[in-house]
Write a structure and sequence with these properties.
Length: about 350
């Protein structure tokens, strides 16, 4: 496997995502400056300058024309992907933790942390691309604001926000392990599950949004059906899981994490377990690891084409891995077939040993 070391950030990486076509790679970190790279060779194409705080999340639209960034400076910004121009600033009360385009690119949703006497909030904005010539004319006010009240006397902190298929629901994950489905028309909670015992660090859909995977600080990653929130599979590790992604070309799951960042300076790379781990999606078995980082892996993504994946860590580096021929042509084992063959052979031996009647 051939890795490229992308040295464009000065502080820990927070998020990594490919665009829909898989030819561009977007990265964000605590250095306030999101970057875009060519996915083929790791060439840095540009940056998006203007934020004054950590970039926690971002979302690129279907046609790679508009980019949204969520920052700790209490703003969400809309950018022109090609020129790097900031088109609009959407102010929030507290740090903006997540952002996601709705299918169709006409709406987006944000989540913000509690701040002073204000609770955490979900906001939905309507910014149709074709109806307004000047993006600065977009309203800064959301069309819907959902106040997330205290649970058991404690404030809730959302960590991720995503739209389900056809924009039916807003899926929001929390630092107490909860996952909720909100109605985007009126903000009511349609369903709620206790997915993990500890903080959910990341939630990712597959390409057609028929599955989603969680990454949690409780050392597990879980696969769910988004329609009924049915738990399907669990991938267990011996470290906190910070990110997890589903391959769109193989039945593989990639997990990234490692020891807590506060203990990294006292731990050698071999002990901290800062590797990307590969699991089979169906059999829940780990079949490979990729080393290289010197800190916990905070973000992962795999190309929609399945030809590469990228990881970003606490060490501030992004590693772009181009899969080799052996991986691309690898055929997954099917244990059931082997078991059936063994059973058939055993039956034949028993029949051979039976006396003729």
């Amino acid at each position: 496997m051939r890795p490229y070391l992308l040295q464009g950030h000065e502080r820990p990486i927070t998020s990594i995502k490919y665009n829909y076509d898989g030819d561009l790679l977007f990265t964000a970190s605590k250095d306030h400056v999101p970057s875009v790279w060519r996915a083929e060779n790791g060439e840095r194409l540009g940056t998006y300058n203007g934020h004054k705080g950590t970039i926690w999340d971002f979302s690129c639209d279907r046609f790679t024309r508009r980019l949204l960034t969520a920052s700790a400076d209490a703003t969400c910004r809309l950018w022109n992907v090609q020129t790097g121009e900031c088109l609009k600033i959407f102010p929030h009360i507290g740090p903006v933790r997540g952002v996601a385009w709705a299918d169709g690119g006409q709406m987006f949703a944000t989540i913000s942390d509690p701040f002073m006497e204000h609770n955490a909030k979900i906001r939905i904005y309507h910014i149709p691309e074709d109806e307004v010539e000047d993006p600065s004319m977009y309203s800064e006010e959301p069309v819907l604001e959902i106040d997330m009240t205290k649970t058991g006397g404690k404030r809730v902190n959302p960590t991720n926000v995503l739209w389900t298929a056809m924009n039916d629901d807003l899926l929001v994950a929390f630092d107490n392990g909860l996952i909720r489905l909100y109605d985007p028309s009126d903000g009511t909670v349609r369903e709620e599950i206790q997915a993990h015992e500890k903080k959910i660090n990341r939630v990712r859909f597959n390409r057609d949004k028929t599955l989603f995977i969680t990454a949690s600080a409780d050392f597990t990653s879980k696969l769910y059906d988004p329609v009924d929130l049915k738990h399907l599979k669990t991938y267990r590790t011996d470290r906190p899981v910070n990110d997890a992604v589903i391959s769109d070309t193989k039945e593989h799951i990639l997990l990234g994490g490692g020891q807590e960042a506060m203990s990294v300076t006292t731990t050698a790379g071999k002990v901290g377990k800062f590797e990307t781990r590969f699991f089979h999606m169906v059999y829940e078995e780990e079949f490979g690891i990729v080393k290289g980082h010197f800190g916990p892996i905070n973000a992962l993504d795999i190309s929609p084409t399945g030809r590469s994946y990228a990881s970003g860590a606490e060490d501030g580096y992004v590693r772009l891995h181009i899969f080799d021929k052996d991986y691309l042509e690898m055929k997954d084992p099917v244990p059931e077939e082997d078991e059936v063959l063994d059973d058939d052979e055993g039956d034949e031996e028993e029949r051979d040993g039976e006396p003729d009647r």
